[in-house]
Amino acid sequence: MKSLMSASPFSLHLSKATPFGVFSLASKSSSNLIPTILQSSISLHTKPRMILPKFPIFSIHNRRLQSESSGSSSDGEIHVIVGPMFAGKTTTLLRRIQCESENGRLSQAVGLLWGTGLGVDSGTYALLLQECIYRKEYKKGRRIHAQMVVVRFIPNEYLKTKLLILYAKLGDLETAKILFHILSVKSLISWNAMIAGYIQKGLDGMGLHVYYKMRENGMKPDQYTFASVFRACATLATLEHGKRVHGVMIKSHIEENVVVNSALIDMYFKCCSISDGHLVFDKSLSRNVITWTALISGYGQHGRVMEVLESFSRMKNEGLRPNDVTFLAVLCACSHGGLVDEGWDYFLSMTRDYGIRPRGQHYAAMVDLLGRAGRLQEAYDFILKSPCMDHSGIWGALLGACRIHGDIDMIKLAAKKFFELEPENSGKYVVLSNAYATHGFWNNVAEVRLMMRNTGLQKEPGYSRIWVQNNVHYFLKGDESHHQSVEIYELINEMSCVLNDVGCFLVIHHFYGLLCRSVAVIKSNKDTRYRLDSIVTHDGMKLPCSALANLSSFRQKFGPDAYDKLDVIGIDEAQFFDDLYDFCREAADHDGKIIIVAGLDGDYLRKSFGSVLHIIPLANSVTKLNARCEICGKRAFFTLRKTEEIQTELIGGADVYMPVCRQHYVGGQVALDAARILSETQKVECGAYA
Ligand SMILES: Nc1ncnc2c1ncn2[C@@H]1O[C@H](COP(=O)(O)OP(=O)(O)O)[C@@H](O)[C@H]1O
Ligand SMILES: Cc1cn([C@H]2C[C@H](O)[C@@H](COP(=O)(O)O)O2)c(=O)[nH]c1=O
């Protein structure tokens, strides 16, 4: 039934705001609403160009209908962010809010477009295509193009270029090429898209060829062109072309750009021209972490371990913070140089000093480091303790190390884990086969060869499955084998007619409505540290907000209609809201809102603060953050009050509070308690003498 569903992956409902009988378009993909739509259309829309389904394919959920009519976009979610002061709760809240607001419903927007069966204006198509490109949802972009073709919409030059970019990024270069050729004016953007498309697909030679064609056509390259072409020259290790393009860049007098410079440094290093790489680096006026990382990785590629470590330390001395890529280069260098202890130090420093959480690749580099040094058991134990046991790279690294030092059991174990995660990685089968061969296990070599043959098997085609009255129905793409396929396709056609009828209501703001979620942020009006109209993090990030005494007044104050249209609600300083539980439950369960709550879980006495902890049972997710202990720099879980006030609520920042680790909380609290007792005693004694 997949085909049936995908014919109308959007829902319609009777809008509260619109007059009875007029449809408004809503967002949630609810194939189970289709009978409702059809019935509503018959009775209210009075264009009965359809048949009612003869069998009850879908069930109808009324609650979902209600929440859709409230304009909200989700099933309702609650996410809670807690921790001591300075842990980054407000920062995280702001990031999540931004993320949620951008994370609109592209799928539904594309579904909506398909459902209408009509063409929309170029601006709407451009908006949707742009969103697909921006969000890297290229397949959705292709669906938009398919819809254009179906409704016989002729794209203008601007849209053709957008489509070209989309196909180039998708890696469908044949289609991109066709679009490129039919462009009457080939802009620099379209040339750049073609060049980048080939290079991203690994067709670096073609990318370079298109670059020369572009030059022949008299086009002047820009930073995007150079960044792509240097990348191609680096991969092809073609110093001659790299230098030639570098010459063009110098003559073009383009503004210095760190991305281009980094690509250039990388190109020289990959073309084995270390001195040129270094020269470009030295001459770079503006260096940032990317430029430094290009240099560090460059040295790493040539096994210049000492230069890697020296550059890394110079970079830090210049006050730049390394990022995860820099650390990866450093860890790989340590691995190649056999510097196990140094590798450990860098690995630990990532989180401790820079708050960078190592990813699978960093763990893999550590496994490689330990494995190459012959410390296979340690590498294995490290994997077991790592949080990314499902990252194929770490097992691949262990397997690679086993080739040199491993015993048969470890080889088998690493191979088993690796191929569970990446069954079709033919390259690693070769590694495994070689590992067995190195140790003379010829039977195992034969087994691996058999496995390799098996991986050549074609994957089963995907299918859709639907249950109807205890019967399971399977559908393949374009499938007509179902005994009711004639009726099913008839129904699809009828549905398309109904959807066409409402297509005239499709206007651009529906797409905007779908693509951008509407968001509101609330904070407690008790927090008077900053202006009441914005929440501000300890390092100055800001977002406008409503400051309220309680949450129950929010709907009324915000306006019921505006509230209904809200998708996401952020709540900061949640510890100050007594009605937090009821508000969150109602807003998520009933109104379908996404609620993101940030607040202190504990007060300065480490006692549960307000009702923040009460909402944990309601939550989809809970994130506990920590700060840095002001005294020792270790992870801080608690907030120490520096003053002697004892009321729970006391507004203040670093003047009154400091984040501390357990050790310094306990020590600090004892010290503060002693100070308090002393001052109380003194007060009593003074009173007695007075
Ligand atoms: N001791 C500290 N530990 C961690 N961050 C701190 C500390 N002191 C100041 N900060 C700053 O505070 C920022 C977090 O601010 P914010 O998100 O407002 O925290 P919260 O809402 O949890 O109090 C950090 O990004 C950092 O720049
Ligand atoms: C520990 C503690 C804190 N507060 C107050 C102090 C601040 O005004 C807020 C916390 O703000 P932040 O954004 O998390 O930094 O809460 C309090 O009243 N009582 C306490 O015990």
From TrEMBL:
Chemical reaction(s) catalysed: thymidine + ATP = dTMP + ADP + H(+)
Keyword terms of this UniProt record: ATP-binding, DNA synthesis, Kinase, Metal-binding, Nucleotide-binding, Repeat, Transferase, Zinc
Enzyme Commission identifier(s): 2.7.1.21
PPR repeats: 187-221, 288-322
Cited Gene3D superfamilies: 3.30.60.20, P-loop containing nucleotide triphosphate hydrolases, Tetratricopeptide repeat domain
UniProt pathway: Purine metabolism; Pyrimidine metabolism
Protein source organism: Tripterygium wilfordii
Top class in the EC scheme: transferase
GO molecular function: ATP binding; identical protein binding; metal ion binding; RNA binding; thymidine kinase activity
InterPro entries linked to this entry: E_motif (IPR046848), P-loop_NTPase (IPR027417), PPR_At4g14850-like_plant (IPR046960), PPR_rpt (IPR002885), Thymidine_kinase (IPR001267), Thymidine_kinase_CS (IPR020633), TPR-like_helical_dom_sf (IPR011990)
One biological process term in Gene Ontology: response to stress
Pfam family, one: TK
Family listed: Belongs to the PPR family. PCMP-E subfamily. Belongs to the thymidine kinase family.
Superkingdom, natural source: Eukaryota
Keyword Transmembrane included in the entry's annotation: no
Identification of the protein by name: thymidine kinase
